[in-house]
Amino acid sequence: MILISDPFVHTLLEWYPHNKRDLPWRNTNNPYIIWLSEIILQQTRVAQGLPYFEKFLENFPNVEDLANSSEEMVMRLWQGLGYYSRARNLHRCAQDIRDFHSGIFPDSYQSLLQLKGIGSYTAAAIASFAFNEPVAVVDGNVFRVLARYFGIATDIASNTGKKEFEALANAIIPKDKPAEFNQAIMEFGALQCVPKNPNCDQCPMKAGCFAFNNDLVHSLPVKIKKLKIKERYFRYAFILCENEVVVRRRGEGDIWQGLHDFPMDELSSQNESERQIGFLKEIQGFMTIYVNESEKWYKHILTHQRIFANFATVIVQKEYRSILKEWADKKGFQLIDFEKLEDLGKPRLIVKFLDDQKLSLN
DNA sequence: ATCCAGGCTG
DNA sequence: CAGCCTGGAT
Fold first, then answer.
1. Is the CB of A132 under 7 A from strand B?
2. Rounded CA gap, A353 and A362, in Å?
């Protein structure tokens, strides 16, 4: 580990003093100022947080001033910065320091972690910047820099990923320069090893960077997207004419590509279920049809979609077969023998529906 | 218009 | 592990 990380740490600590931004919360050991800046900078860009930092420090020069302020005042000053639980926790934390710590900031990672609004990142930041405790910060920048340089593909959103990166960072942090290392790796992530299109040709780390040397810069770090499940509502028409049925082959750009299902309308919500299937109006203009609505909504789960499907059975008299065929051709649907349906690839949802039809025929 | 980043809490 | 918010990117 030392052999691998040594050039990393060395290059990083060489790079930092020449490239660091001059920010007002740097170059201080005051835990109050460091804490205040870290809470404000959580989920917040420097440019947006800077004026708030100055405003807070002006109004509350020390932790007791903040503790003695009202929550209303704190919330008012925080206005516009977002994530307002940070402001409530900020105030509560200041009061707890006043009431239970004699107004003195706790000075270790573990004790800082007990305070409101201080998690592992912020505890490590304060412990290292203010008290030189050799504990590594792991924020979004650190994930990215370590994942790329060391070629780690573990999902950074997972718990195991977080532990793995924390272990690595804590293994390589120089015990004699924890503050400088922590500042350096975050600044490197913020300025050089940026999320999109980093300028790797100019990067001082490229010789030892796994991602650069293996063309993986754009795929690291791995972050598994929290897939938000989309709900969709399919209103199918199961159109029968004698022994034939109307099917369609699903095309590109959606689920079930190349499989077969039936003509359908997609609704924006289940409430629209009253609405008649749009294209049935069309064919009703040419022919008499019998529509058998069903109350049943099939539920079909995919990785990223939850589909609710409802089927209306439509009976077309055989004298209208040629008109139906003409309409189907125009729409790109097929009119096929019901028996042939067995041979076509179909989504599970459709198979289930067809199975239910067989049962109801018996 | 929609998507995304970003630590902590309960 | 979802929810919290905003501004910037697309």
1. no
2. 15
**Secondary structure (DSSP) of A104-173:** ----SHHHHTTSTT--HHHHHHHHHHHH--------HHHHHHHHHHHT--S-TTSHHHHHHHHHHHHHHS
CA distance A71 to A234: 50
**A259 and A142 fall within a common domain:** no
Domain total in chain A? 2
Structural domain boundaries, residue A73:
2-213
State the average pLDDT over residues A335-360.
87
Kindly determine whether the C-beta of residue A45 is less than 7 Å away from any atom of nucleic acid strand C.
yes
With the C-alpha atoms ordered A83, A84, A85, A87, is the resulting torsion angle positive or negative?
Answer: positive
How far apart are the C-alpha atoms of A251 and A259, rounded to whole Å? 8
Q: Is residue A272's pLDDT more than 70?
A: no
User: Separation of CA A232 and C1' B2 in angstroms?
Assistant: 18
pLDDT at position A293, please? Answer: 87
Cα→Cα distances A230→A223, A302, A308, A347, Å = 20, 10, 11, 18
Catalytic residue among A38, A133, A164, A166: A38
Q: Between the CA of A252 and the C1' of B5, what is the distance in angstroms?
A: 31
CA dihedral for A265, A271, A275, A276, sign (positive or negative): positive
Is A220 domain-assigned?
Answer: no
Q: Within this chain, do residues A41 and A95 fall inside the same structural domain, yes or no?
A: yes
A184-208, pLDDT tens digit by residue? 999 999 999 998 888 899 899 999 9
Average pLDDT, chain A: 88
Tell me, yes or no, if A38 is annotated catalytic. Answer: yes
CA of A78 to C1' of B5 (A): 20
User: What whole-number percentage of chain A has pLDDT above 70?
Assistant: 93
Task: Record the pTM.
Answer: 0.72
Tens of pLDDT, residue by residue over A71-124, are 899 999 998 888 888 998 999 999 999 999 999 999 999 999 999 999 999 999
Q: Give me the pLDDT at residue A214, please.
A: 93
Query: Letter for the amino acid at A176?
Result: D
